[in-house]
Amino acid sequence: MSSGSTRPLSLNDGTNQDAARPAAPTVSTHEGEPSMAQILAALVNTQALLANTLSRGPPTTSPVQVHSTSDTSSSISLFDGTPQQSAHEWITRVERIAALAHWMPSLTLATAASRFTGSAKDWHSAYGSQYDTWEQWKEALILQFKRKLTMQEFLELQTKRRLQSHETIVEYMYSKNAILNKAPYRLAEEERISLILSDIEDNTWTNPLAAQLCGTVTELIDRAALLDARRRTTVCAENDKKPSSSTASRGQGSNQRVLQESFTQQLVCLVQHQESDPLQGQLALLDQLQQTPCAT
């Protein structure tokens, strides 16, 4: 009967072989601690995120907006729109300060307009306020105030600047050279040096500087710095020799009192003489008045 018996199907036949395989070994860990596989997976994810971030380039940052303060805005010189000031140079200084202070273009425009006086202020009120962007506004400003000094205006302006007794030679040269920048054409270094030395009226300082044969204004200023100490000593010595105003006034007052006392005594004598002989007394009085100096 063995041939007629049927054999039961095995659970491991063909289709169910995976169920018979032994389970993969696992790493035993303490309760609450991650397994080694979890640690490696986290590390791989972190590296993938880092590589993705670097491939997109550096992160973009929004510009920092800085608000202007009174101290910062006052560093911009006033602009009145006259030919003595160059609009282009003034705009360049404004942009340099704005870059150092990290100003936004809108803040730069508002701060620059607040430093206007005279014709420039009137222009901004009538026309400049119509421009919304800094680039448009500055181009319109330069176009409006582009006129330079005429040669006659320049010569009159630079001639007025002379070396003063209260300032150093170096201070004078820096100020004079700044005025020479306003010339209607570019001056050569030799022309600048000649104009600077021409307005130092005391030959005590002009001759040593001219003898140096400097090639640039910078070299001339370096030589002038050596003369400043000597010049300060000379000016102080001259001031010490001058009598003070109080001493001079006391001397003048004393002389006036002496003249007045002498004149009074002479008048008394003449009046007494007039009482005895009226005619002779009047003649003598007139003669004395003509000879007596006026007290001032």
TrEMBL record:
Residue ranges under compositional bias (Polar residues)? 1-18, 54-67, 244-256
Comp. bias (Low complexity):
68-77
Specify where the region named Disordered lies, as residue ranges.
1-33, 54-81, 236-256
The highest taxon in the source lineage is: Eukaryota
Q: What is this protein called?
A: Retrotransposon gag domain-containing protein
State the organism of origin: Rhipicephalus microplus (Cattle tick)
